[in-house]
Amino acid sequence: MSCSIMNVATVSKAVGISHLQTGTAAAATAGVLDVGGGEWVNTSAQITSIQLVTAGGQTMLAGTSFTVFGCNP
Fold first, then answer.
1. For 1-21, how does the pLDDT look when each residue is reduced to its tens digit (9 = 90+)?
2. Is 38 inside any structural domain?
3. Residue 36 within a domain
4. Does the residue 16 lie in any domain?
5. Structure pTM?
6. Which of 73, 15, 72, 7 is nearest to 45 (CA)?
7. Residues 7, 69: Cα–Cα separation, whole Å
8. Distance (Å, rounded) from C-alpha 12 to C-alpha 19?
9. DSSP string, 10-62
């Protein structure tokens, strides 16, 4: 999964989300690309934390990772 967010205090924070199913092991069931997005309409503050919540309270499989990349523009 990949999320891209511009975190500038003076503009709303739009996010683009993509998730690619990789490797189905069958030609008839090729991978599916899911795309979504969202927006935090706040023009006076920056995002200071991000929370990962799994659907339906499911747990992540052993060996799964979650990485956050950032920069200070």
1. 677 888 888 999 888 877 766
2. yes
3. yes
4. yes
5. 0.56
6. 7
7. 12
8. 23
9. TS-EEEEEEEE----SSTTS---EEEEEEEE--SS----------GGGPPPPT
